[in-house]
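Here is a tokenized protein:
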Amino acid sequence: MALNRVVLVGRLTRDPEMKYTPAGIPIASMGIAVDRFTKDDQGNYEVDFFNVTAFRRTAEFAQNYLKKGRLVSVDGRLQMRSWVDQASGQKRSAVDIIADNLDPVGPRPQGDENAPEGEPGTEPAPRAAASVAASPAARPSAPTTAAPKRPAPTPVADDADESDPFADE
């Protein structure tokens, strides 16, 4: 069995650039910077930079709603590409992330009116009907009954297998 899956959270290093195939399929290319868990000699986090490519609706979403500096979650797969450099004639290669899903993380930046309503990281629209339904006068009165209390679960005996290194966690 083979598995090729990658999930990253980082900041876009440039605005998504949209192109189209001859068949009219949208393709968005962008860069993402992802902090490592390690720090350099000056105490700054080391950063990895990746190229991200999205197709079709994911590409259109990126073009319309994501901008440089935005924190995003990328869910996709790795894809290797290679070519011959025209100037030097040397064979070159690169690994790209093909994004199946792009999600903004956290609140949208100030002044970003382009973020879609209801997307992750955006404020939900206020609903007038919800405030009326939530008022005590709008709710029908019903008798309140307390839910029966359940007994606390009984502790399970520790059957830790000594060969399992994660049994104590």
User: Anything to note?
Assistant: Residues 117 and 124 are 7 Å apart (CA to CA).
